[in-house]
TrEMBL record:
It comes from Capitella teleta. It comes from the Eukaryota. Its EC number is 3.1.2.22. This is palmitoyl-protein hydrolase. Signal peptide: none annotated. GO terms for cellular component: cytoplasm. Pfam families: Abhydrolase_2. Belongs to the AB hydrolase superfamily. AB hydrolase 2 family. The keyword Chaperone does not apply. Keywords: Hydrolase.
Length: 210
């Protein structure tokens, strides 16, 4: 699971604590699934006036209407792939691995997971892809896709709800098996109801007896 920069959730430990708080002290744990919370590295981040921030990639602005910074995106895809490959070496088949995150972390999960990764699922909470994203171009030439789960707050002031919904619609139009949930009164945050839906989706996507 991956996180948005510039808040108490800007590291793997931060997002773990946020989830623990939202669930009233319970972690997002499963008896048959190992959960990893990686942290984004420090890098200059243009929307933060170029200051070093814990972010997965750089962007010119927080908007779907600008070019993607493919150099930083692909660099992080390689880093995430190294984590996945280590899990595969540890005996976990790729088709039983899910990757996902919140905000920029969710976008990073889509950049990696929806581009010929061989994973079984991707989730993105309060996230979006840029128009004409490299992800869409990759999906046009693929034949099998991971399942996709998305949630978004209807009152999100940072990542507009319409951006997330548009991303979902684009993915569906390209053949991705996806579901989308709107939380009317949710801002740019995670709440208990959202996490419960995510738990149910994860349990159905990676069942204990498969």
């Amino acid at each position: 699971m991956m996180s948005q920069s510039g808040r108490h959730s800007d590291t793997g430990d931060g997002i773990r604590s946020w989830i623990q708080l939202a669930l009233g002290g319970n972690h997002m744990t499963f008896p048959h699934i190992r959960t990893i919370y990686p942290s984004a590295p420090l890098r200059p981040y243009t929307p933060n006036m170029g200051m070093p921030s814990s972010v997965w990639f750089d962007r010119k602005q927080i908007s779907p209407n600008c070019p993607e910074d493919l150099a930083s995106i692909d660099e992080m895809c390689s880093s995430i792939n190294a984590i996945v490959e280590q899990e595969v070496k540890n005996g976990i088949p790729r088709e039983r691995i899910i990757i996902g995150g919140f905000s920029m972390g969710g976008a990073m999960a889509m950049y990696y997971g929806l581009r010929k990764s061989g994973l079984c699922g991707v989730f993105a909470l309060s996230s979006f892809l840029n128009e004409n994203s490299v992800v869409y171009e990759s999906l046009k030439s693929d034949v099998s896709y991971p399942k996709m789960f998305m949630c978004h707050g209807g009152r999100d002031p940072l990542v507009d709800f319409a951006w997330g919904k548009r991303t979902f619609e684009n993915l569906k139009s390209l053949g991705v098996e996806a579901e989308f949930h709107k939380f009317d009164n949710l801002f740019h945050e995670i709440n208990k109801s959202e996490l419960q839906k995510l738990r149910d989706w994860i349990s159905a996507t990676v069942p204990a007896d498969s």
